[in-house]
């Protein structure tokens, strides 16, 4: 019998990620330029408490995506300011290595249900999977969990739009920005799905990724704000890149999340630039006046090489 979603987990995010317009969709490369009339432009961000700031962020996201090749979806949730943004929130993407954050959360949930901590082997696999994006570790945990337990976690987390990849192809799990925000929300606020200890453990690993994989949503964050990131980078059939970054930002009283998913970009580096344009625009407009970290990552020799989440012939 298929497990029923936990009500409490679902209620955590009710209304948190809003699609501002039914016609937004993902933002294609050749989308028409915004109207000169602000009122005619789609409203990507909403906030009852800070509507003017939400509008500035909406405009900044639109500007960051203007003229970029490929297709992008963006989601932002700021609990402190009551701001949520969604661009193409229902469009699904091949997850690539981003799904490793979900695999770890499901592993932690299994341990909680069994009344224990992670085993030494699980800790070793989790560390390699998140900090180095190790595919063998991800495959081991994926097989250990099985599809039934993975689906149970998705149900509990309210990640209803996520579709698990076929067989052992966890990198082909279909994800949305909205569901990735739900996952990050579980990690950054107390809930009944993950204990505080489990949440802290995963966030610590996401703050410990190797330097070569710290690109993406952390770009342009304010000095003193702590980042927690998981990225994915996958070309299908040697081209058609899927490059994603999910990030949570805490410290200095902050608690906000940014998710950017992309596909069909001409290269990995091009997609990273797109993601970092969006991220820096969001950070800057959420934190006006604060000094920001350098917003553009230095290209790494490992770029343009697949994260290996899906075999090249699949």
Note down, in words, how this protein is organized.
With 314 residues, the chain is α+β, with helices and mostly antiparallel strands. The protein has a domain at 8-98 and 174-194 and 209-286. The chain is 36% helix and 18% strand. The chain has helices spanning 7-12, 51-65, 100-113, 120-131, 135-157, 177-188, 196-206, 268-286, and strands spanning 45-46, 71-78, 83-87, 93-94, 174-175, 226-236, 239-251, 254-265. The strands form 2 sheets. It has a 6-stranded antiparallel sheet, with helices on both faces. Strands 4-5 form a two-stranded antiparallel sheet. It is globular.
List the helices and strands and how they pair.
Blueprint: H1 7-12, E1 45-46, H2 51-65, E2 71-78, E3 83-87, E4 93-94, H3 100-113, H4 120-131, H5 135-157, E5 174-175, H6 177-188, H7 196-206, E6 226-236, E7 239-251, E8 254-265, H8 268-286
Antiparallel strand pairs: 1-3, 2-3, 2-8, 4-5, 6-7, 7-8
Helix pairs in contact: 2-8, 3-4, 3-5, 3-7, 4-5
Structure classification: alpha+beta
Mean pLDDT: 89
Q: Which value, in Å, is the CA radius of gyration?
A: 18 Å
By DSSP, the count of extended strands is 8
Number of helices: 8
> In percent, how helical is the residue content?
25-40%
User: What portion of the residues fall into strands of 2 or more residues?
Assistant: 15-25%
Question: Which ranges are low-confidence, i.e. pLDDT below 50, for 5 or more consecutive residues?
Answer: 1-39
SSE order in H/E notation? HEHEEEHHHEHHEEEH
Sequence of strands across the biggest β-sheet: 1-3-2-8-7-6
Q: Distance between the terminal alpha carbons, to the nearest Å?
A: 31 Å
Shape: globular
User: How many strands, what sense, and barrel or not for the largest sheet?
Assistant: 6 strands, antiparallel
Assembly category: single chain
Organism: Actinomadura namibiensis
InterPro entries: Beta-lactam/transpept-like, Beta-lactam_cat, Beta-lactam_class-A
Protein name: Beta-lactamase class A catalytic domain-containing protein
Keywords: Signal
